[in-house]
Amino acid sequence: MDDRLADATKRALGGGPQRYHEKLREQGKLFVRDRIDLLIDTGTFVEDGLLVRNDDDVLAADGVVTGRARVDGRPVMVIANDPTVKAGSWGRVTVEKMIRALESAYDELLPVFFLIDSAGARITDQVDLFPGRRGAGKIFYNQIRLSGRVPQICCLFGPSAAGGAYIPAFCDVVVMVEGQASMYLGSPRMAQVVIGEETTLEAMGGARVHCETSGCGDALVTSDAEAIEWAKEYFTYLPDNYRVHALEYEPELPAEASDISTVLPTDDKGAYDMHDFIDGLVDEGSFFPLKHLFAKELITGFARLNGAPIGIVASQPAHLGGVLFVDSADKAARFMWLCDAFNIPLLFLADVPGFMIGSEVEAQGIIRHGAKMLTAMAESTVPRICVIVRKAYGAGLYAFSGPGFRPDATIALPTAEIAVMGPDAAVNAVYFNTIERLEEPERSAFIDEKRSEYEEDVDLMRLASEGVIDAVIDPAALREELIRRYVIAARKDRFFSDRRHGVPPV
């Protein structure tokens, strides 16, 4: 190799100055090329733009490593910041490399892995990288164009600052390293100067804030290596692009092969953990939650059923009774859009008292957010099966793909209840004035009588006889019933409506 080329290659592969490598080690972080090595199949990386800015000793590859590789044998595009080069900040060539990588991913239908650790744009270079047709805005434009076409997966190891925070926001999924990762539009110092707020980076844009409160993060991990392993496992549930289906794996029986009805308490108002129900239904060890720390009253995640991937939207009675709030509606909508984009069938497990009521949630726009959830569900043309595990009251029935929203099937367990509201609330709403006039023991007797009449009116077997329910299934038979139905539903037509797009209530 020519000495000049060899020297330039060595400098580029080495990244930035040694003191920044030492800082990475002190922080417990990995060098960008070590991160890539953990992600990809050995020896498969084909890099583009290694030698850009080779005339500058501190701008190795201009702070970003881009190229094609294979992950679990599948071709992907990798875009990875190098925090040893000016804190992973963007210059003109950084932006150009990222744009080219995204354009190639679009043309070649390549899933994109973002390994983000960047201080954002270099203010000193703003005219070169910010406003033009090949400026930073083109990165986001291409991400939006890629959305739903190929998976976009973000591992966030450090900061993703200012405009750069939109890269993870436009990805399908974001895994964040606690104590290291952050997303923010303005730094704490900027917040203090501009709006007078005294805060910290962790409180304003830290990983836990985004995974628990804002919902921008999908998973919280403790190290770079754990983030990469999480991203690789997530990728096993996704297809390469929107034109194909995800890989199927060898079927496995559930971890708990016993009757899943034992999960349900005998008291119809008793709480239980829906995760236990799911674990008894899907292939062993296959449930993969998303946004587990955010809006815990609703569970979303992937699983495998007889080896084939499905997306699960489930009530969580163990948290706030499973009632739906603004955040849970948003969480469900985004997950359903993800599944529908990439041909992943949906399973709804309903034990839902409905949407939360009250002045606080009305001011937050719960009607609008609930309508968003309904829209995302109705527009999902992948196979959809609704299982009423226990109760499905009010618009909660609709939100969980109830009969009016054309699911491929509505299945009820023998414990199921479907009604506008629960019997106690209904009796109180209809007969409040009468109840107030009565004295005991007449009052209790009247309430019991009207409660029985209400329960008879919405009796499960009556609903089945009227065709509201497609099947009432014993819990022990539910897994096999679902397997058979999904196999048949795989042939369904994916057309929804002749239009450009809807105007969703987001």
Determine the mean pLDDT. 94
What is the 3D form?
A: elongated
User: Biggest sheet, in brief?
Assistant: 8 strands, mixed
- The percentage helix is 25-40%
Count of runs of 4 or more consecutive helical residues:
20
* Helix-and-strand structural type: alpha/beta
Output the radius of gyration.
26 Å
| Percent of residues in β-strands | 15-25%
Number of strands: 16
Measured between the Cα atoms of the first and last residue, the distance is 57 Å
Uncertain ranges: none
Structure, explained:
The protein contains 20 helices and 16 strands. It is α/β, with parallel strands linked by helices and 506 residues long. Strand 3 (74-81), helix 4 and strand 4 (112-118) form a beta-alpha-beta unit. Helix 13 packs parallel to helix 15 (366-379).
Keywords:
20 helices; 38% helix; 506 residues; alpha/beta
Topology:
Blueprint: H1 3-14, H2 18-27, H3 32-39, E1 46-48, E2 64-71, E3 74-81, H4 92-108, E4 112-118, H5 126-129, H6 137-146, E5 152-161, H7 166-170, E6 173-177, E7 182-184, H8 188-194, H9 201-205, H10 207-214, E8 219-221, H11 224-235, H12 274-279, E9 288-290, E10 298-305, E11 308-315, H13 326-341, E12 346-352, H14 359-363, H15 366-379, E13 384-393, H16 395-399, E14 409-412, E15 417-419, H17 423-437, H18 442-457, H19 460-465, E16 471-472, H20 478-489
Helix pairs in contact: 4-6, 13-15, 17-18
